[in-house]
Design a protein that fits this description.
The chain is mainly α. It has three domains: about 1-65, no CATH class; about 80-130, no CATH class; about 145-200, no CATH class. It is built from seven helices and two strands. The chain has helices spanning about 40-65, 65-95, 95-110, 110-115, 130-160, 170-190, 190-200, and strands at about 15-20, 30. Helix 1 (about 40-65) crosses helix 2, helix 2 (about 65-95) runs antiparallel to helix 3 and helix 6 (about 170-190) packs antiparallel against helix 7 (about 190-200). It is extended and about 55 Å long. The two termini are about 45 Å apart. InterPro entries: Mito_inheritance_9.
């Protein structure tokens, strides 16, 4: 016997339809439907039908299996709640910006996490607050932190690797050759101010962080 926690029917968002899964409102066309051409209207009609189908499925599942729907609805909140814990455990390698970013997310979704009073006031005040100036400063700092991660993800995608970046021994030579070509191309085409950063922060070299607790050797 197998148990499926997530719904079997998923709704793909469409620019022609105003609908958010889980909301209490029915789907509707976004403004401008009457100005679409024939083919676009066909696409919009199918998207609206799919949205109503997803809405009907959601309501039926709530009636048949409310416990499962509750698990699905609460999953994002649980993820937000434990993000600071995960960030703290990674703080040694990723630094304070990673922890701060998780706390800012908690601040932004605090009312949803703890539940709000019917009048819209949080049942508990958020213990952490960040001013607009602090948020702007954090954004700049955090962007510089995740820039190497984005480079690593881009490199793995271009090499056809899984997110962990591991390579089977029989494929090592081929991947190494492809890696060297990508590295040379990106560095040669980079602007002068980016070239030094690429050389210094290139993910596949001694001393860079790996996906384990160790550095590359």
């Amino acid at each position: 016997m197998q148990a499926t926690l997530s719904p079997l029917l998923h709704y793909a968002a469409s620019p022609y339809v105003d609908y958010t899964p889980g909301s209490s409102t029915n789907p509707k066309f976004t403004p401008g439907y009457e100005n679409l051409d024939v083919e676009q209207k066909k696409i919009a009609d199918r998207a609206l039908k799919a949205a109503f189908r997803a809405r009907a499925y959601e309501l039926k599942m709530k009636a048949l299996n409310p416990a499962m729907i509750d698990v699905i609805d609460q999953a994002p909140l649980r993820e937000l709640s434990i993000r600071p814990i995960r960030a703290v455990t990674r703080g040694m390698s990723e630094g304070l910006p990673a922890i701060r970013d998780a706390l800012i997310d908690v601040c932004d979704y605090w009312d949803i996490i703890v539940g709000s009073h019917p009048k819209g006031v949080s049942t508990l005040p958020c213990p952490v607050r960040y001013s607009d100036v602090e948020r702007e400063r954090h954004t700049a700092e955090y962007d510089s932190l995740i820039k190497p991660w984005r480079l690593r993800e881009t490199l793995h995608e271009q090499l056809g690797l899984d997110p962990d970046g591991f390579v089977l021994s029989e494929k090592y030579d081929r991947v190494k050759e492809a890696h060297d070509r990508v590295q040379e191309k990106l560095i040669n085409e980079a602007e002068p101010e980016d070239k030094e950063w690429l050389v210094r922060c290139w993910p596949c070299q001694d001393g860079q962080l790996a996906y384990t607790s160790e550095t590359c050797q």
